[in-house]
């Protein structure tokens, strides 16, 4: 997994429901803070919907909250450390409000249930990603002073019938979860243990959710999964292995087309792809529809085949390069980003240089880059020594970051003089007279506001750039 699901930004957000005031005499006020990947933020919207049905309102004011939930990420040690620090801060609020309840949701909840609840006594509730439907009952148990835990993983739960409450929404972009869990068992990754086995959501419910968002005026949806390329649907009890001949099935390329057909003004993105499962059929579907964005996040993790093998990634350096060639051939103007880990178990200096040479060859537009962090319970933790010194990991990571900065700048320089269709998403943080949006290739574009507003599609000609941003002017040509 990566991140997109991107586990990887470690953003923190106290989020609000737009229509929170519509709940009269709520049972209580819930404050939700989300960390980690896009899937966690999407899950928080599912949590908000379930609790809204139980007559709980959500607030952005921590002081007003009766219950605080932290939706957590376990992908790296640093992510868990930040959450622990935050939980200690929340615990201090109890001096002012003794009845305050604190709960941990998501990946960290499943992995550290007894430690958080009993040993450290930081929380009152521990709820895994497949147990959110039981939250109203778990809150009641915690209010009664009882242990409140549900971290059972499911082979069926997809929350397909839940209409997520859009948290902190700009009314323009939204996430749609299309599948849960992961079967890949990459040796460095905890996701299969914290989110369970892979299962796909039925396509009709996904299309209905996209249609509802489109009808509400949303302009872009991102289809989420730990590995969207392995999306598969033929019915509740059917798998890829036992599908009957002639049975109608839906793969990811089919699903992409179905969502693209919801409306030509609804942009479609997806995350995350896995190199071993990315098919030409998906790429050709992207090329067929103008509203499917020309952008692929394709985590490489390492540029060396030996390291990829002990990572259990299921592909070689050469396989990955063939996938990049296919993307460039079928979608010539496609934006490509990646995930990269420095200092994985036994990585040599030569193998590190192979990762850098892969970056230069692929010319990634941007990347999510991290030094290896051993996670308890993973195959790597059980089988391989974490034997690359921290100093070496840090130095290699910095070399990768510096190289990506150079590649990103070179990529952006090539866009000067080009005109892109940009979806305006917000007013620029630096100037109220400018808007910020993204083009199809997922690059951030800053341009004068003029008569446009967030939610508008704008033709923008690029005039300059930084390594992270394209800067342009409004084009009035057809």
Reconstruct the topology from this structure:
Elements lengths: L12 E3 L12 E7 L3 H16 L2 E3 L8 E6 L4 H17 L7 E6 H5 L1 H7 L5 E3 L7 H9 L4 E3 L22 E5 L1 E2 L10 H5 L3 E2 L2 H13 L4 E5 L7 E2 L16 E2 H9 L6 E5 L8 H9 L6 E3 L7 H6 L6 H14 L4 E8 L6 H14 L3 E6 L7 H5 L6 H24 L5 E9 L6 E5 L5 E5 L8 E9 L3 E6 L4
Parallel strand pairs: 2-3, 2-4, 4-5, 5-6, 6-7, 8-11, 11-14, 15-16, 16-17, 20-22
Antiparallel strand pairs: 1-2, 9-10, 12-13, 18-19, 18-21, 19-20, 21-22
Helix pairs in contact: 8-9, 12-14
Your description of this structure?
The protein has 478 residues and is α/β, with parallel strands linked by helices. The protein has 3 domains: 13-150, 3-Layer(aba) Sandwich (Rossmann fold), CATH 3.40.50.12160; 173-413, tm_1862 like domain (pyruvate-formate lyase- activating enzyme, Alpha-Beta Horseshoe), CATH 3.80.30; 419-474, Nucleic acid-binding proteins (OB fold (Dihydrolipoamide Acetyltransferase, E2P)). It contains 14 helices and 22 strands. The longest helix has 24 residues, at 390-413. Residues 1-21 have low confidence and may be disordered.
